[in-house]
Design goal:
The mean pLDDT is 96. Helix 2 links the parallel strand 2 and strand 3. This protein has a 6-stranded mixed beta sheet with strand order 1-5-4-3-2-6, sandwiched between helices. The longest helix is centred in the C-terminal third of the chain and has 10 residues. By secondary structure, the protein is an alpha/beta fold. It has 5 helices and 6 strands.
Length: 114
Amino acid sequence: MKIGQITELLNGKVVCGEEFLDRCVNSVFSSDLMSDVLTLKSDDLLLMTGLGNVQTIRTAEMSDINTIIFVRNKKVNEDMLKLAAENDMVLIECPYSMFKASGILYQAGLKPIY
């Protein structure tokens, strides 16, 4: 599914990487535990989290994840934007809870990582 479609489904706001909305993702991982994210091995993965700090961006970079959705109205700060832009990442702010956002994406056909 294209990132642009995901953004629309989640009533999201793209704050970084608008030029990459045609990228596709195949699966989603939802977590606030970055140690769990570091264990993942998957291509075209979207990370959904409520952890809004620069460590989230660094963890995604190390895990080759280039799309992050921040749920629960978490806001991206300038340091996060700068690091994400340097790594060609897409950052999306979403007003929904992680549970609701995960359900919407699952119903739309995206698969969990496991």
